[in-house]
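Hi P.,

Sorry for the delay on this. The queue was packed all week, but I finally got your sequence through. Input first:
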Amino acid sequence: MIGQKRVRPGGRVARRRTWWMAAVVAPMAGVLLAACSSGGSNGSTTGAGGSNSSSSSGGSADSLTIAVPLANLGQGWPYIAQAEGYFKKVGLNATVLANAGVNNVDPMVLSGKADVALFGVNSPISAVAQGNSMQVIYGYSIDGIGGDLAVKSSSSVTSVQQLSGQRVGTIGASGSAYGDTALLSRYVVNHGGKPFQIIPYATPAALLAAIQSGQVAAAVGSPFYFDAAVAAKQVKLVIDMADSANREKYLGAAALPVNVVYGLKATLASKKQAVEKFLEALNMANEFMQKSTPSAIASAVQPLPSFKGVTAATNLEDAKIVKSFLYDSSQPISAATWQQVLQTVDLWKVDGFNSSDSKFSYGSMVDMSYLKGANGG
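Then the structure:
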């Protein structure tokens, strides 16, 4: 819920998964993640290309195909719905194209291979900028996952203000990590300093090497970029965005839904009942994630075929992170909230995007009628 404080349970440890890539790495070219999984469990069957189907028990059911970029808890909502039987409960034959790849979900939606997708909001915005009629129908997690600030362990820097005018690295030249870097730079300027010289890098390894070599004074990105290096005492965090107080202080809005469900306007309209059932199941999954411990969340998805190559320890650490970035997804995205989202995306350097262009407006890009139907209204 907007303004609600959430502090991630547990401490930081080394982690290897990359569920944050949905919003952070979406703009980067050449990032392909192969589809995986075989076999079945928890009422799921795995089809060609890594798809998992959950069938309704008894009678006819609506069908929907969902593209999910990664098989991990960063996009855990449909996986939880699958594992806990929520698709069956609402009467939906859901085919989850698991681990579809961060560069593949939009082509899947545009070609009709998938009806809806879960991804960072810059993805449907980019599609609209290219002339496609894409609509956002649901928000599932919030901004800040790309905004941790790290420095070399021997650095004397203890506050962002000390980085006034200095070189600060991040991943990519657009997207949420770049945007969060720009917001931190703006914070420094608003408090009397000079803007960062923002230096984009292609990979987390290159970013960490730049910190170690002194090419940059600091780096901004996901906790997954830094945790192994933090554990090895090679770098240290100056700002941890898992703390909602930091998100409010440095990013200006602690709970904007920048990770969303979306689809082509015509496809959504043609599958209205199935889409509403899907969102109803996601609401159940979100409630499960809000109320459950990280251990229970991790255990729920562990048996799924899509998670065959993911260790229990990794799922547990992912669950700890994701609980810090949950959005109250049962509540519709308002026009005012969407305007804040657009103002945030202004800093992400999405090609063809201008927040004042009417094609990106709430009336053009957001349709909350599907969520209203899912909520029984």
